[in-house]
Each structure stands twice: as structure tokens, then as C-alpha cells.
């Protein structure tokens, strides 16, 4: 009985760690990915909250049935999973929602989270492809928030202290001063 009490925690630990291993086995090959020979693009190209994006994958290679699926992730700057993949099965890969596309599919829809633009400045779209011989390729696409512009009313005047005319006058005055300084030693030699 004493032996069982000593071994029970170890058996429980083995069971729990075994479950954790099976959850991450499909994700382990993502960690050693090399740069992919395919491209990724989103439409639209700038980040906006509560917007559906078309994520397009272009790969001109002919993949056999031995190639794995494309795996897609959307990550915040803090590397947290954000948004929602639509019409694609997903799995949890190291706490990151990962959409799976058959290698023959080349597009997926992703919707950014709702909220004000200040809450999220950018999103990185990651696309992985598992090839035969345990080779994994990765390509990324960065969705950055568009620069915010503030409209200027048309009836305002410039408050800049340097206008084009005053800048030209300042340059002209500098040339005149330089010419006078050059002439000053010459005038003293003549007298």
C-alpha cells in the first residue's frame, strides 16, 4: 500500500504529461520551419478592426499527397492568437488557434477582432506548409494599421515661420554676407 501511495503521483504525472505531448505533437514541427518557397498576401493590405481579410497563398509547385496541409495563424505583437478563421477547421497549437487548409486550397478568410484601432496596432499572418522528410516551410505577412491622418480645414493659413519666399531671402542674404567677407581682405590689400 505504501508503494502504491509513492507511485501514484508519478503515474498521474506521466498520464498528464502524456496528454500534453499528444496535444503538441502536431505542432512541434512548426518550431524548426525554414523560409517558404511560396507567397502570402492579404486583401485588404492594412489592419482594421472587425474586418474580414482574404488570405491568399501562391505556390507554383506541384505538391503530392505526401505534403501536409497549410497551417495558418494570426498573431498580435505579443504573440497571442487573435481574430477568427472562417470556414476552415482549426486546432490549438501551443495556445494559438491554427486553421488548416488542404494543400490544394489556396485561400482562407480571417476576421480581425472588433474594437478600436488603438487596441491592436498590427497582426502577423503566419502560413506553414509541412513537406515530406519532416521539412516545414513558413511565410509571414504583416498587417499594419494604416497611418492616421487629420484633415486640415481649407480656410486655415500656414503658421510656419519659414515660407518659401523668406527661405529664399535668407539664402540670398547668406550669399551676400559670404561675398562681403571675401571682399573685405581684398579691400584692405588695395588700401
Q: How do the helices and strands line up, and which of them pair or pack?
A:
Layout: H1 2-28, E1 34-35, E2 39-43, E3 46-47, E4 52-58, E5 70-75, E6 84-86, E7 90-93, E8 96-101, E9 107-111, E10 122-131, E11 135-145, H2 164-190
Parallel strand pairs: 1-11, 3-11
Antiparallel strand pairs: 2-4, 4-9, 5-8, 5-10, 6-9, 7-8, 10-11
Features:
7-stranded mixed beta sheet; 2 helices; 191 residues; alpha+beta
3D structure, described in words:
This protein has 191 residues and is of the alpha+beta class. Helices cover 28% and strands 32% of the residues. It contains two helices and eleven strands, in the order αβββββββββββα. Strands 1, 3, 5, 7, 8, 10 and 11 form a seven-stranded mixed beta sheet that branches. Strands 2-4-9-6 form a four-stranded antiparallel beta sheet, with no helix packed on it. The radius of gyration is 31 Å and the shape is elongated. Mean pLDDT is 73; it is low at 3-24 and 156-171.
* Span of the ends, CA to CA: 120 Å
Bin the strand percentage: 25-35%
Overall number of strands: 11
- C-alpha Rg (nearest Å): 31 Å
Helix-strand sequence: HEEEEEEEEEEEH
How many helices?
Answer: 2
> Mind describing the biggest β-sheet?
7 strands, mixed
Helix content: 25-40%
Amino acid at each position: 500500500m505504501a508503494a502504491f501511495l509513492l507511485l501514484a503521483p508519478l503515474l498521474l504525472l506521466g498520464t498528464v504529461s502524456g496528454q500534453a505531448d499528444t496535444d503538441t505533437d502536431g505542432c512541434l514541427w512548426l518550431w524548426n520551419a525554414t523560409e517558404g518557397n511560396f507567397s502570402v498576401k492579404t486583401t485588404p493590405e492594412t489592419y482594421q478592426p472587425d474586418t474580414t481579410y482574404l488570405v491568399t497563398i501562391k505556390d507554383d509547385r506541384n505538391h503530392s499527397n505526401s505534403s501536409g496541409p497549410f497551417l495558418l495563424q494570426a498573431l498580435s505583437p505579443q504573440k497571442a492568437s487573435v481574430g477568427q478563421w472562417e470556414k476552415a477547421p482549426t486546432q490549438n497549437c501551443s495556445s494559438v488557434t491554427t486553421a488548416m487548409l488542404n494543400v490544394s486550397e489556396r485561400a482562407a478568410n480571417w476576421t480581425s477582432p472588433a474594437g478600436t484601432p488603438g487596441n491592436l496596432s498590427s497582426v502577423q499572418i503566419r502560413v506553414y506548409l509541412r513537406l515530406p522528410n519532416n521539412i516545414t516551410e513558413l511565410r509571414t505577412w504583416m498587417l499594419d494599421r494604416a497611418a492616421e491622418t487629420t484633415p486640415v480645414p481649407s480656410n486655415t493659413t500656414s503658421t510656419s515661420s519659414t515660407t518659401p519666399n523668406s527661405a529664399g531671402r535668407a539664402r540670398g542674404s547668406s550669399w551676400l554676407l559670404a561675398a562681403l567677407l571675401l571682399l573685405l581682405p581684398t579691400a584692405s590689400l588695395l588700401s
